[in-house]
Amino acid sequence: MQTFSDYAASKGYSTVRWEDIPSLSEPIYNFYFQFSHALSVGRRDGNPMILDVHVVDETGFGAFAGTYAEADAIVLYRDVPLLILKLARALISQGIILPDIRSDDVDLTPIIVPGSLNDFLGAVNVWDVPPLADSKREFLALKLAEYANLFIMAHEFAHIFNGHTSYVNRTMGISTIVELDSDITQTAGNYDRETLEWDADSFAQEHILKRAIESTDYLVDGRSALLIPETNQIGSLNDAIAIAFFSSAICSLFFSVNSYQSASDPTPKVHPHPAFRAAGAAAMIAQTLAFRTGGTEEQFQDILHSSIEQFLMTVKATFATPGEPKWAANVAQIGDPEVFGHALAQRTEIWSETWSRIHSELNEAKRGPMIPLATPARHPAFPDNDRLG
Predict the structure, then answer these.
(1) How many Cβ atoms are within 10 Å of 129's Cβ, its own excluded?
(2) CA separation for the pair 250, 273 (Å, rounded)
(3) Nearest-angstrom CA–CA distance, 10 and 243
(4) How far apart are CA 155 and CA 159, in angstroms?
(5) 319: helix, coil or strand?
(6) Could you state, in chain order, the average pLDDT of each consecutive group of 10 residues for the chain (389 residues)?
């Protein structure tokens, strides 16, 4: 198995010392803090797991996870936190996302990205986005950026912690799962890679959701259930649910710069369609809340549907050139009921079947004490609830 240094050299990557750069160090230290317990119990081949976070001197939005000879590693492109922060401020400045969270005595000044999403990716370091004048909107933008950064790193961590990187090393001969490059739209021989991405998204989304709603876990027969306060630092429970969705949706927006066919295309890909990932995030939130509280998914549909609409409206308002076919068409499918319903349900069923098939191998490769069950079951705390998980 190659070292990370050898892998980086083969790709022409040079690393950046992120500890000295606040825009990089703050989200990375936050990740280590949030996952300190998981890292303390993680094991690799019977030994305590070692997890490095590297930053490579690459522009644009990119991240990957890998298992190397000396350690597991999460790798970020240097621009990722800055892209997320500036886009978060621009999105929140429109006043469409959670519009009631604002100061009455401060006028909104929308920030328009001068061009398309691709233009933004290439010019983030020269485009100045100052803090928002409204302190409440600025706080919301900072929380959105914090959670979006954490979502990316939690997603990559799931690839390692849940055994994905070891699994693809054994079955496909690769040491690294790349999150965003031109290869992610390629056709795959089966649904294994899509399923691993689905699991990583689920892992990250649940963590961000619990952070946002400030829930408390309690265990019943080894499965966690949630106690949820009525208010949190974002505002109401619905406000926190919305910001948890937006944190993953902002990442799906970056994923959408690659060309995809229609979301209804059944051909397996290396990564799921961006519309599935954004719409799927809303479904994951509803399912997690229903399963871990004993409620129903219908309780949360209104806020999640509203969040999807706010996100789509905000994206259109934020970019001066919103009609770039490649990404605009991908993102637009999020709001298509056919995509959100029938096609997503079909794909989720395929991912569930694939998860059951590869579960035993992932269970052997995992770093943590457990991964999601091979076959969903009722929560032991809520035996009369039909929601399986």
Answers:
(1) 17
(2) 15
(3) 39
(4) 7
(5) strand
(6) 93 94 94 96 95 94 94 95 95 97 94 84 83 97 97 97 94 83 60 94 96 97 95 97 95 74 78 82 93 94 91 89 55 56 85 96 94 93 94
